[in-house]
Amino acid sequence: MSKTLFLPSTPLDLQAMRAPRYTSYPTALQFCEEVGPTDAIEALRASNDDLVPAPLSLYLHVPFCRSNCFYCGCTRTVTRNQTIMSTYAARLCDELVQRAENLDRDRRTVQVHFGGGTPNHLPDADLERIVGTIRQHYRVVSAVDASLEVDPRLVQANQPAFWRRLGFNRISIGVQDVDPRVQRLINRIQPSEMVAATVDACRDAGFASINFDLVYGLPGQTLDSINATMDFVEQQRPDRVAAFGYAHLPERLPAQRAINRAWLPDPQARFRMRNYIESRLIAAGYVAIGLDHFALPTDTLAQAFAEGTLHRNFQGYTTHAGCDIIGFGVSSISRVGRVFAQNTKALDDYASALERHEWPIERGYRQSDEDRLRERVIMGLMCHRPVDLVNLSRHYQLDAEELFADALDNLHAIAPRTRPLTSCHDGVLEVTEAGRPYLRLIAAQFDAYLNTTPSKSSLAV
Fold first, then answer.
1. Angle, nearest 10°, between helix axes 82-100 and 124-137?
2. Residue 407 above 80 pLDDT?
3. Most exposed of 207, 246, 266, 338 (fewest Cβ within 10 Å)?
4. What is the CB-side half-sphere exposure of residue 1 using CA atoms within 13 A?
5. Omega of the bond leading into 174 within 30 degrees of 0 (cis)
6. CA atoms within 13 Å, Cβ hemisphere of 395
7. How many DSSP H helices and E strands does the chain contain?
8. How far apart are CA 77 and CA 331, in angstroms?
9. C-alpha distances out from residue 231 to 49, 129, 285, Å
């Protein structure tokens, strides 16, 4: 039976709302050293023998940044040394080739995503070399979804056209907030004119989709600064917008120690910021998708949401369900069937493993049958889809409503009767519109592991 998890002392107590982001289930907190390279290789080879092998989604992590953004929680290394970056690019190519040796050549690659860190901090020649290695060793479909995260402070005028020639068709731009004071406090000064120039260059180059990443809850942030940021977003009209809540974890992330906790907006102010961003985007014609994404109705993400095919993985919301995900580079996470595997975060350990022709995995996880069931429920809720507990009961040969009785009771307990977070009729569980801002809290009620590691969870709103 589910247990009571993170129940607020009063209805919707924002201080009590702690839960993971659920880009996987179980989350990476449950990964352990007992699952390693051998397990991942076996899973990858076995996936070739599936009746219809899953398509591939490739994630490549570039950890390098030119400067230290104080708010960031990503695995990164601040350097301007091109030799270090070029050496790492060569390692990425080695890893791509080594993984391809375990895959049938007819496996289709439908998605490629470069994240970081700052992928556009890599020298152009190295980025071109990596893309060339992918195309040489993987069967990349003509309609591949190829995306690149970029820092507008590093973008040169001719680079978007170069990226487009390499085959990238989606760009994600880190905007965060346009207010100069907020930018100074997070050590990321980028005038809005600089961001606008990057957008114009990407549109001129023919990119199919442009995404803005926003962050609320930053030091010095107010509704006025959020208002100015939303004015800028409406002017630029990106195809997608992701609005993330800043998580202040200085005990785990040393760079955040430069941020005085007194500079941060309180939980109620954070929540007002989140709601204001949503209201502005919806009024501007964007579709609210899941927890923190928004897209224009013409974008494929909005279309997948409307069709009920939206999916969630380590990169967030995606249109590519049912893929085997292979991560490359330090800290990247792979998922093949029931097996999760995370690469080491240390550059030296990463290089040494590749020299030994080993998958540089340091920990992982193998899903149980119950994990799979809970994943179906949690990911359905996170994607704002109806979850048919009756069908799940038949599929897994158990009584899902009985298994989740406590979770369902918890959901009733934490919400006002006049504004329930969920509804459950005839065995079909759905998140209400009132519940959408609390998706992480709702999903947490179905997480079997949170009662053992509650102190390690991240902020929910």
1. 0
2. yes
3. 266
4. 8
5. no
6. 13
7. 15, 19
8. 12
9. 52, 39, 14
Helix, strand, coil in percent for the chain, rounding step 5: 40, 20, 40
Assign 42 to helix, strand or coil.
helix
pLDDT in tens, 281-297: 999 999 999 989 999 99
pTM of the model: 0.92
Tokens 């020298």 sit on residue: 123
* Angular region, 72: left φ>0, alpha ψ -120 to 50, beta rest: beta
Q: Which tokens in the block code for residue 63?
A: 């950890």
* 21-63 pLDDT, tens digit each: 999 999 999 999 999 999 999 999 999 999 999 999 999 999 9
Domains of the chain: 1-23+368-461 (1.10.10.920), 27-327 (3.80.30.20)
For 24-38, the DSSP string reads SSS-GGG-BTTS-HH
How far is the C-alpha of 82 from the C-alpha of 429, rounded, in Å? 52
Average pLDDT score over the chain: 92
Q: In whole angstroms, give the CA distance from residue 433 to residue 82.
A: 49
In DSSP terms, 59 is beta-bridged to 113, 327
Q: Is the pLDDT of residue 459 over 70?
A: no
Closest listed residue to residue 148, CA positions, set 171, 126, 164: 171
Q: Residue 456 — pLDDT band, cuts 50, 70, 90?
A: very low
Q: Which residue has the tokens 């085959």?
A: 167
Q: What is the pLDDT of residue 1?
A: 40
CB 165, CB 128: distance < 8 Å: no
Task: Say which amino acid occupies 51.
Answer: L
The residue among 335, 261, 299, 359 whose CA lies nearest residue 36 is 359
End-to-end CA distance of the chain: 27
Residue 450: which pLDDT band, with cuts at 50, 70 and 90?
A: confident
**How far is it, in rounded angstroms, from Cα 153 to Cα 412?**
47
Q: Which residue has the tokens 């926003």?
A: 214
Contact 405, 242 (CB under 8 A): no
The pLDDT assigned to 17 comes to 54
Q: CB-hemisphere CA count at 13 Å for 49?
A: 5
d(CA 362, CA 32): 8
Measured CA to CA in angstroms, residue 354 lies from 286, 308, 330 at distances of 44, 40, 11
For residue 6, what pLDDT is reported? 46
